[in-house]
Amino acid sequence: MGTCLRRGILLLVMLLLGGCSGASLNPSGTAAPPPGPAGPSAVRLKLRLPELEARSNRGEILQVVGGKMKPAESDIYQRFNQLLTWADKFRRLGVRANADQPDQAELAYKFGARGIGLCRTEHMFFGEGRIPIVQRMILADNEADRRAALAELLPLQRQDFYGVFKAMHGSPVTIRTIDPPLHEFLPKREDLMVEIAVMEATGKGGKALAEKKALLARVEQLHEFNPMLGHRGVRLGITYPEISEMQARAIM
User: Fold this and answer.
1) Predicted local confidence at residue 27, as pLDDT
2) What three-state secondary structure class fits 102?
3) Half-sphere exposure (CA, 13 Å, Cβ side) for 252?
4) What are the distances in angstroms from CA 140 to CA 133, 155, 228, 236?
5) What is the pLDDT of residue 57?
6) What is the tens place of the pLDDT at every residue in 81-139?
7) What's the pLDDT score for residue 41?
8) C-beta contacts of 90-97 below 8 A and 24+ residues apart
9) 8 A C-beta contact, residue 101 and residue 157
10) Which residues contact 44 (CB under 8 A, 6 or more apart)?
11) Sign (positive/negative) of CA torsion 31, 33, 35, 39?
């Protein structure tokens, strides 16, 4: 893209969004200042970006998209929408968003995304009330207990996928089955070691201490030097096919 075209696009965007004042583009492709004390030798862009105004403008766009403000009430949103409308007439590329929750998918669609390029299902497991269920699944030492935990997750996953599909209004959605290292869902190893040391030092033992030690043993068992290349993704699905089975049922 030529320098002149890049500068022209910059000026257009800033003018539309109310963030540029007193700048023009001369035939040489440089931004020329308006007549004034600076004189013609000061070739530069004069951008006014008051922090408070900029923050307010960004907030207005989100409020309109979120349905908390009418489009007619926000001048900055009308300018933003006009810019996107012009772009839609000429663009040749589509836009897909990263969205892991129904509310994220809905917001992405309102901003013009027509599909989800990556839906990271492991992020769904961090929802309210789900971590204890996921932890029971990870800590299960047999398939029956693991399937019992997965049965609790199934309706939650199904609800998530339904919300994402509905928000996309038939646009394509690319789903990635659970991918993170399993130890990410468990307490940190260092924190558990400290808790166990404190319990032992204060004479607190019994069942609580035994449970903490069992949890630490499982965390150390799952710990990996390089989780990015470790037991995750397809490899995790091969080891525990019931996890992928549950997710497939939720999607279908």
Assistant:
1) 43
2) helix
3) 6
4) 11, 20, 23, 15
5) 55
6) 788 888 888 888 888 999 999 989 998 888 888 999 999 998 898 877 888 999 889 88
7) 40
8) 96/171, 96/172, 96/174
9) no
10) 31, 33
11) negative
187: nearest Cα among 150, 220, 209: 220
Structure tokens belonging to residue 37:
């004390």
Please report the sign of the dihedral spanned by the C-alpha atoms of residue 62, residue 64, residue 68, residue 69. Answer: positive
- Report field, pTM of the whole predicted structure over 0.70: no
Cα–Cα distance list, 204 to 173, 194, 208, 210 (Å): 51, 13, 8, 10
Burial class (CB in 10 A: 0-12, 13-18, 19+), 24: exposed
Tell me which residues of the chain have a pLDDT lower than 50.
Answer: 4, 11, 19-56
The pair of three-digit structure tokens given for residue 68, joined into one six-digit string: 């908390």
Q: Say how many C-beta atoms besides its own lie within 10 A of residue 229's C-beta.
A: 9
Q: Which of 40, 45, 3 is nearest to 24 (CA)?
A: 45
Do residues 149 and 134 touch, judged by C-beta distance below 8 A?
yes
Q: Half-sphere exposure of 9 toward its Cβ, with a 13 Å CA cutoff?
A: 7
Q: What pairing do the DSSP bridges indicate for beta strands 24-25 and 31-32?
A: antiparallel
pLDDT computed for residue 74 by the predictor: 74
List own/partner pairs for 24-28 with CB under 8 A and 24 or more apart: 28/4
The residues near 183 (Cβ < 8 Å, ≥ 6 apart) are: 189, 219, 222, 223, 224, 227
